[in-house]
Amino acid sequence: MHHLNYHHLYYFFLVAREGSIAKAASLLHVTPQTVSGQLSTFENQLGYCLFDRVNKRLHLNTKGKVVFQHASEIFNKGNQLAEILNSHEDVSSKEFVIGITNGIPKVLFYDFVHHTMREHANVKYIIKEDSFDGLLKELAINAIDFIVADRGIAPGTQINASSFFLGESAMSFFAKHPLHPHQHFPQCLNEMPLLMQGHTSGIRHALSSWLETEQLYPKIVAEFDDTALLKLFGSEDFGVFCAPSAIAEHVEAQYDVHCIGNAPSLNERYYAITGKSRADYTISKAIVEKARQILNV
Fold first, then answer.
1. Cα–Cα distance between 238 and 156 in angstroms, integer?
2. Using CA atoms, how far apart are residues 294 and 108, in angstroms rounded to an integer?
């Protein structure tokens, strides 16, 4: 196949995205027979099927998933170009999409990126928050330029991306009220109500291991994927919680809590993840350098 028929590709893209020929036909304002014919022509031109047909339902096969990934990128870029051309703005303007995982403290993320955003003010920034796996899926189809996460890419992951270690911060523990004179950290955590990060957080496993090593057995009263929500409940005296020591002053001031102790051996690590196919690394490089400066790397 020497030339790709984008008309046929678009029909395939809509069928794959909507999950059925009928829904795609409705969006295109044509008959299902027309869509089915275009899809068959496209598959014949490629020389292989893109769907497995099971009980009259279409399921993308391995090759179909690859074609859909690239088609998503192609039509996403096309839509962005159309928006730029229709906005009557400078066509050299561009977007930079940054993903942040749920477990990253928002104030730390702000510290990482706000200087770069001011220095590159001609760029429109789109900030997305999602799970680590959710953001990686978007990175795989080039829907995201840069991710700030609390873990790097695992070896063997089939994604064309690079991880950059930004640094780490020891963890501190906070409570609504200061410790009584007879209480000592970390022994005071025994039987104390504790608010834990959820299983999607990179620090969760390290925190559990640290508690076990220190032979501490707090009462876990709630778990949170969103660290801002965790701190809010901590500020209302639902329990003790931990947060990076790098933002301890902010946590105390913002949530009206007290730091009751530090755990130098308990560390949260931070990473930047970028797609290897990206040609412009200027903004990514600036964010990485600023984050490492803040974390003293």
1. 41
2. 9
- Residues 292 and 166 sit within 8 Å (Cβ to Cβ): yes
Helical H segments across the chain, by residue range: 6-18, 21-28, 32-46, 62-86, 106-119, 132-140, 203-213, 227-235, 248-255, 282-294
Q: Kindly state the DSSP code that residue 50 receives in the 8-state scheme.
A: S
The three-state DSSP-derived secondary structure of 134-157 is HHHHHHHCCCCCEEEECCCCCCCC
Rounded-to-integer distance, Cα 146 and Cα 159, Å = 14
Q: Per residue in 110-155, pLDDT tens?
A: 999 999 999 988 888 999 999 898 999 888 888 899 999 999 988 7
Cα distances (Å, whole numbers) of residue 29 to 2, 11, 21 = 29, 12, 12
Dihedral angle, C-alpha 91, 93, 99, 105, nearest 10 °: -160
277-291 average pLDDT score = 81
Q: Which residues contact 250 (CB under 8 A, 6 or more apart)?
A: 107
Query: If you compute the radius of gyration of the chain from its CA atoms, what whole number of angstroms results?
Result: 24
Residue 107, classified by CB atoms within 10 Å of its CB into exposed (0-12), middle (13-18) or buried (19+), is middle
Closest CA to 92 of 140, 124, 66: 124
Residue 47, both tokens? 């020389």
Query: Has this prediction a pTM greater than 0.90?
Result: no
Quick count: other Cβ atoms within 10 Å of Cβ 45? 12
Provide the sign of the torsion angle of the four alpha carbons 130, 149, 254, 204, taken in this order: positive
The answer on pLDDT for 279 being more than 50 is no
- Tokens representing 180 are 């009584």
